[in-house]
Specification:
The protein is α+β, with helices and mostly antiparallel strands. It is built from 3 helices and 3 strands; from the N terminus they run E-H-H-E-H-E.
Length: 107
């Protein structure tokens, strides 16, 4: 009976061709968009309390959005990114700010 080459013991060798499962889930950026009506303080509050930024980082991100039109509040798995976007929008609408928040794939 023929045997596989280079396999003297004769035990079949199965080469693993399936891709190993990805350890890292797809990540999503939560984006803040600039507008003329949402207050700077509100954006800083959201960055500190919903995105866990230090006051220094929160102010820096808020100013980046103010000057560039858009900026990243954080990067999360899809479920977490969607939850943070929703919570931010709820808080903004409660205070009647027109703040726009979106998510996009990070890679
Ligand atoms: N442009 C706003 C102002 O001058 C501040 C602001 C910053 C609004 C970031 C939204 O995502 C935003 N009051």
């Amino acid at each position: 009976m023929p045997r596989p080459k280079n396999n003297e013991g004769g035990t079949d060798v199965v080469t693993e061709t399936a891709k190993p499962k990805l350890a890292r889930p797809p990540m999503y950026r939560v984006l803040l968009h600039n507008d003329d009506y949402t207050t700077r303080d509100f954006v800083v509050f959201v960055l500190q309390h919903l995105f866990n930024k230090s006051e220094t980082d929160a102010v820096q991100i808020m100013l980046h959005v103010h000057h560039n039109g858009i900026g990243v509040a954080g990067v999360f798995t899809r479920e977490v990114a969607e939850m943070k976007m929703k919570r931010t929008l709820e808080l903004a609408r409660e205070q009647e700010f027109p703040l726009l928040v979106t998510i996009e794939p990070a890679e």
